[in-house]
Amino acid sequence: MPKVFISHIDGYVGSAIKNAFPNDKEYRFIGTGKTAGKNVELIDATSTDALKAAVLSSDIIIYDIFQDLAGGEFVFQALSTTPFEEEKVFVCLSSVLTWGKTVSKVAPEEPVSDDEYKLRKPHGNYRAQLTFEKSVFRNKHDLLKRYIVAAGLPYGDGEQLLHALFKRAWHGRPLPVIADGANRVPTIHVRDLASIVLQLAATKPDERYHLAVDGGSSTLADIVQTISTKLGSGVVERQSAERVQLDLEELSQAGLDLLTINVVTAPGNVNNLEFEWVAQAGFVESFATVVDQFRKKRGLTPLRIVVLGPPASGKTSVASALAAEYGVPHIHAKLILDEALAPIPLPPSAVAAAAVPADDTAAETSPDGATDEDGNAQPEANAEAAAELSEEAAAAAAEAQAKYDAALQQQTELRETIEANGGRLPEEAFVEMLKAKMRSWPCQNQGWLLDGFPKTLADAELLFASDEEGAEAAGGVPLAEFAVVLDADDDSLRQRLLSLPQSQLLDGHTDEAGFTRRLAAYRATNVPETAVANYFEEHDACLPLFLPAAAPVADTVAAVRKHVGAPRNYGPSAEEIADKQRRLAEAEAARVAKAAAEQREQAAREAAEQQRKQRDWQARLDKLQREEQHVLQLQSTPFRKYLMENVMPTLTAGLIELCKVRPADPVDYLAEYLFAHDGEAK
Fold first, then answer.
1. Other C-beta atoms lying within 10 Å of the C-beta of residue 272
2. Which one, 235, 356, 393, 626, has the greatest CB density within 10 A?
């Protein structure tokens, strides 16, 4: 059983190489990495003894020096200095960056060829990799077949180096183009790269050096614009390399080096290998396949949900909560027309022109510095200044103006259509507007949550235009995957409407007359035989979920979450996360401040209450003391007189007698004396 060693076997390139090996022949895989897959033995890359033993026991050794040059040097040193009896294959997976400064000897605009590998000049950061490549070819081990694969920028299967750009586009943000983006970036689909490595290991051709590139020869601007247009908003911005590194934290230095390389390449020796290309034409030409792989690998398939129900059933509240839960655009059918008729922002050039007064040209001077008597520049100077505008800026301004003019024309035609139709938009025109919204890049990426539409079977057929087997027909949008149908009896719906604040009631829509009219229309078109939910029941891919409208929104969301499953997107973007954290921090700071203020107010109230109670107690105590003193003063005079007249004479005589006699029991003697002389004082 052949044994294959692959460095970083669980990584982006390593796993692709492992998966390229055919299943009809058993292989034993061993390699470095963090996660062991099926039929994979992982070794500790930090243990030189384990690493050496692993490569020496393997028949095929594939090492990626683009990720780990030091490990590749150690492995090749072990192979080249150790004798073995059976032939081994060593595939050095390098990078086209070792050709970073190479120009074809035929002509500068011609692609470099594999035969020119001895003349290659590396990117400044990859001289060591070039030195290692040369050492591989200088080795003379008879039983070691040696191949070098200089890979272009790998892409596909969910992305690695380009993932930062794909993710940014998926979120609809502008993509950066470094400098003018005119540099040629050699690329290769990661599966094609894996196939090349596999063919070298299996067929052992005579050609030892292989430029692993596709036939695209695209510029950086081509690559970035394709990603932005096909996956995002289509907006790109020129930026410096330093700014790009700051903005795209996920982009490594190696990725930046590959994006800024400028080498014209074309497939050469790889064309002699027999394998089925995935993206032979190149990144741009094969992007439909690439983006499909990206969505599937990253679990970013769009989620499409419709929320239906009679008026006042809470559709919009539920739809809004679900849109927030799943991170998908909330399409409110009623607001589509409002958005289409909203004022169109002026293009930047028109805004700038409107911001400058017509006579405010004092800063502009003619070529010879001449101005008129008011200090205004002469017309010749203005013409010269206008001529100095770059072609790029002029083209951008013209494009923005053209878009503005087209949008204005479209809005004018829409208003005319509404006016010609008695103030209402024809159903077909409204559905086309809805389709355009559902085909926008956010809906293509995240999906959509459609609120309150379709209302009838005819609406559904017009919007989704699916055939009997559920396939999307020309002109339609993809069928919803899930339909949430809310319902309640008429009395309950009416009670819900009556509970709304007066400010939320719209004449002819949510007022009593409007509600009655809309509810009657809904009931008439949604009898069991013609209910719009039937359209979704007829398509097995979209089974409706019927829920009571009276349930709390949180319970409804929980029920839908159980039915639909987890979100299928990246979650919030970095900006959304930062904004949420900021809002949470502000809310927490406000909560802490409010709690501190309430605590201070409570402490102040308690202190004031304590002081009040203390004052009241002291006042009562003072009053009591004054009253007691007064009573004592009132009682003190007659009590004294009583004692002096009735007690003191007899008591004084008894004490004098006691002092004379000095009895053994003076108290008993005094008592007997007082008893014997009782009444004498009177």
1. 14
2. 235
How does pLDDT run across 334-350, given as a tens digit for each residue? 788 888 888 888 776 55
Whether the CB-CB separation of 129 and 71 falls below 8 Å is answered with: no
Number of Cβ within 10 Å of residue 372's Cβ equals 11
340: closest CA among 409, 282, 414?
Answer: 414
CA 528 to chain centroid, in Å, comes to 42
Instruction: List the structure tokens of 315.
Output: 């559709």
Q: How many CA atoms lie within 13 A of 247 on its CB side?
A: 19
Nearest to 65 by CA among 14, 21, 112, 141: 14
* Helix/strand/coil percentages in the chain, nearest 5: 50, 10, 35
Give residue for tokens 């895989």. 29
| 515 torsion bin: left (phi>0), alpha (psi -120 to 50), beta (else) | alpha
pLDDT per residue over 269-308, tens digit each? 999 999 999 999 999 999 999 999 998 888 888 899 999 9
- Burial of 88-114, coded b for 16+ CB within 10 Å and e otherwise, reads bbbbbbbbbbbbbebbbeeeeeebbbb
Helix pair angle (315-326, 553-564), 10° resolution: 50
**How wide is the angle at C-alpha 75 spanned by C-alphas 72 and 80, nearest 5°?**
120
In a 10 Å sphere around its CB, with 0-12 CB exposed, 13-18 middle and 19+ buried, how is residue 602 labelled? Answer: exposed
Q: How far apart are CA 13 and CA 5, in angstroms?
A: 14
How many residues does the structure list for the chain?
682
Q: Is 617 helix (H, G, I), strand (E, B) or coil?
A: helix
Query: How far is 135 from 65, CA to CA, in rounded Å?
Result: 13
CA distance 571 to 491: 40
Two structure tokens written together for 493: 């719906």
Question: DSSP secondary structure string, 29-86?
Answer: EEEESSS--TTEEEE-TT-HHHHHHHHHT-SEEEEETTT-HHHHHHHHHHHHHS--SS
Inter-residue contact 334 to 454 (CB < 8 Å): no
**Single-letter code of the amino acid located at 576:** E
Give the phi and the psi of residue 43 in degrees, each rounded to 5: -120, 160
**Which one-letter amino acid corresponds to residue 275?**
F
**CB under 8 Å to 26, separation ≥6 — which residues?**
1
Rounded-to-integer distance, Cα 664 and Cα 524, Å:
124
Q: Hey, which residues does 189 pair with through a beta bridge?
A: 155
Encoding tokens for residue 91?
């595939």
Q: Collect all residues with Cβ–Cβ distance below 8 Å to 442 and sequence separation of at least 6.
A: 172, 329
Q: Side chain identity at 567, as an amino acid letter?
A: P
Q: What letter would DSSP give residue 448? A: E
Contact (CB, 8 A) for 349 and 400: yes
Q: Read off the amino acid at residue 58.
A: S
d(CA 278, CA 275): 9
Divide the 682 residues of the chain into consecutive groups of 10 and give the mean pLDDT of each group. 93 94 84 85 91 95 95 95 93 96 88 90 95 93 94 94 92 92 96 97 94 94 95 91 88 92 94 95 95 90 91 90 91 83 75 50 43 46 50 75 85 86 84 88 88 88 65 68 90 80 59 80 85 82 84 93 86 62 84 91 91 90 85 70 81 88 89 82 54
327 — alpha (psi -120 to 50), left (phi > 0) or beta? left
Count the Cβ atoms, other than its own, within 10 Å of residue 505: 15
